[in-house]
């Protein structure tokens, strides 16, 4: 099944919703205007449609495999990665000083969506490398940055994040991997890390592992964790590769999905100790890792959108082709392609509305990230930073949860054929299930949303967003179209429900944390429903104007129809979600653990 | 992961909700009282827990395989099937005249749940055989019944349903398999059938295929389809097996789940024609097949409950064992099993509430089936038949849709371990996905609910159910517990929403079918939410009484807590579902097919 990058919708989101023109006015992004965006997206589409996407099914059927400590990736991956690297795609959002392109996240987000639509398993390698680059940019010494970053940007080397251990998953305080200081200033690392994505592979010359470990005598818990660089091959002063370091892949996992992405168990120090280099200061490792993780969380959210888009395209193609039964409205005399049946349309519209809503949300968040980093005015930076931080758990949590529903509908549209692996729809269903788990489960995202993003500032950021939504409502109220009226009704009810839930969270988080956290994931889902819907409401306003001006009629009509569907079928869920959170907290924990 | 049959909850549903004592007063079921039920369930639990359940993982890792037309099932399946047959389980609900046990469906439903919890793939063989027996009981000649039914009940032979062809899935009018009459009164069958569950296997001596085909010159469409018996081996007059018939398995499918269940492509008549025997009258095949299919649809609904129960048990076990992070309420000084975290509890309660609600709904429906068949009063039979028929699409559609959510949560509770196939949680997620598809997709169930079950009688049956729910509301209103008040609030709102949707469906089905069928699946989900919740409301009333009487305190407290959770978190969705159906119909089909 082929993939066609939704370049037009991506550009619409950037230009009309995320304010690409404003982004291009930020210092450093002067080149990042509409023309650049279009050129980059078209080039990116070419690579991903032509080279990366065709390897997706192949990766599922012929996954990475482990033998004697070596991992061989799916045939074609190595060559595709070479093309990816040569095209400069790894450096898209990284500083030009290190060989990157220095483009804003507003544009980068769309490129990340494309590579993930093309091939989730393949895209994970660059995704993790991005995170490693980010961490070194933040906390590495100039020498470390010079040694590692240019070679990661060029694709000669790749990066990994080593957090999880068998006893330490969501709870990183339990990390046991230890680091022994050496007289030369380096460390020796000992321990076992699991679930290490691309922890071993054959697509690059070297792998730069970033590893959480405890220095001997460090405090217990998260305050005693440091971050280390542990290269697979030692790097000589001239930058050439030296001896093999003492980190070895002892196995890879047999997984439900993303089978081509090797998930490694790494053993550090079985032969005397793996050489590691401290990044930043001792005991501040978690802080640095969170920088990396926040970038990765946003990117995983994009993965949700990406797999949803791919599943949607495949379902549409099948629904247009598969002929079965007469339309119920008698509009066709004979049997029709199933896209003519209302329930198939409902499924496709649901898939489409979720995907477009989340894309609009993610790209808008990306623009806030860019402003938070590059805007000359400190106050503007601060506001954008707060908005972006509020959005990260939503982009990650909501877009991935919705991808489960969308990929499930994708199978359903195919009927019995969807259950046959050959068809390919089932792969998306299997692949997507990791997205709500890795880089922090949905519950971890929701805890972040409730605690750090809502309760900590007394709901201020959340209420500011509600205020912006009210402004959109006011604009809708000035329209008299059926679509605008439908959107206004649902958006207003949803925004009011959101504010009630925010008040509930602020009120309960300290005094009655069980009540707040019983509703944390429902709150995340409610907020995601609302904010993705809000972006589609903004899209609807733009589309009505463009339509009136006779611009790109078909696209604008489709955008309006999709926004209205979202309002009536997805935003309509919000008041019920509010009731469950605000009135249903007690029943979540009423049954005692030993009564299960 | 072991399985423990929820015998206690099953007996509670039978006795307190489905009126087992009344069932045991029906002619023919005099032995089917509480004691029998308990004894049967305990015996059934023993076989399924001890013999069938341990083969579930094995079946996934070592699926059925095809070689040279033969299918070899998973090691252990053949022996387990022998034990199943020898225990008399295939005949549980079938007439004693043919060697069955003649037990009511009220008891049988629980046994079917157990075998499916133990092993969905294994259970499909008896499930299809049940359907074949049902069809022959309805439409077979006495001779056909004598030839085939006793041997199917004894487990010597098994049965299949042959409906689907590559071009004829949901749309059976497109069936092309043809039947040529022979001078001896038999037919020769020619064609290809796909997706035939246990269409070929090594667990029994013979396979009785029931096949839809067109007799030469029959009318087009569904009115020209006849039903035939096509045995794998010819049966001699003395009942012994003769020559191999001309039906051959040319391949089996590579599927997302239920891998141990062979899904066959069957080729009829490649070597001169498969010998077939007409069942009933020519051109009435679909009618007979629907009898079989209705039994199978109900059973597939039970499969949804069964896989949900198994996923729930596995998630609870993991949540009690996996230690990670401190409880947010400070209730434990150190790290706790994750069941102490509110969001894990929310997930487990959701899984539990759906499963118990659907079980209560299904067993109550089974009791209506029994009364519809065995009650001496024709009017009572008629009412119960109408109720049962209304329930079939809900038991099938709603219980299977909820199983997707429950098995997904089951993976989620396991975090990263859930994505590793070794853990076993992912198997339930994969296995369950077929349930919303086979024996009629959820959309097909929903069409049935809207058309035949709601619009045809002008909403009469639906409103009668709403009336019964009102009676439950009145009983709740006489209680002053927090749980009863919470349930009353949500049940009343949900019932009112249901009635509005019923009126909408009755009003639109003819004049504006697109609007009705755009909301058909949401209506099915709404009705399922409501009716499963209603049964838990009834359970809550019983449990409060029993609790007051000091009976089985822990069980009754848990039932009340589960019912209240259901009300506050699942019933609370219903008004939003109503809005989407009643106000959102137009936006489902607003985007034209070629605009996708």
TrEMBL record, chains A, B:
Keywords: FAD, Flavoprotein, Oxidoreductase. It catalyses: 3-(methylsulfanyl)propanoyl-CoA + oxidized [electron-transfer flavoprotein] + H(+) = 3-(methylsulfanyl)acryloyl-CoA + reduced [electron-transfer flavoprotein]. InterPro entries: Acyl-CoA_dh-like_C_dom (IPR025878), Acyl-CoA_Oxase/DH_mid-dom (IPR006091), Acyl-CoA_Oxase/DH_mid-dom_sf (IPR046373), AcylCo_DH-like_C (IPR036250), AcylCo_DH/oxidase_C (IPR009075), AcylCoA_DH/ox_N (IPR013786), AcylCoA_DH/ox_N_sf (IPR037069), AcylCoA_DH/oxidase_NM_dom_sf (IPR009100). Its cofactor is FAD. GO terms for molecular function: flavin adenine dinucleotide binding; oxidoreductase activity, acting on the CH-CH group of donors. Its EC number is 1.3.99.41. Residues 283-449 form the Acyl-CoA dehydrogenase/oxidase C-terminal domain. Residues 75-156 form the Acyl-CoA dehydrogenase/oxidase N-terminal domain. Residues 161-270 form the Acyl-CoA oxidase/dehydrogenase middle domain. It is an enzyme of class 1 (oxidoreductase). Involved in the assimilation of dimethylsulphoniopropionate (DMSP), an important compound in the fixation of carbon in marine phytoplankton, by mediating the conversion of 3-(methylthio)propanoyl-CoA (MMPA-CoA) to 3-(methylthio)acryloyl-CoA (MTA-CoA). This is 3-methylmercaptopropionyl-CoA dehydrogenase. It comes from Caldimonas caldifontis.
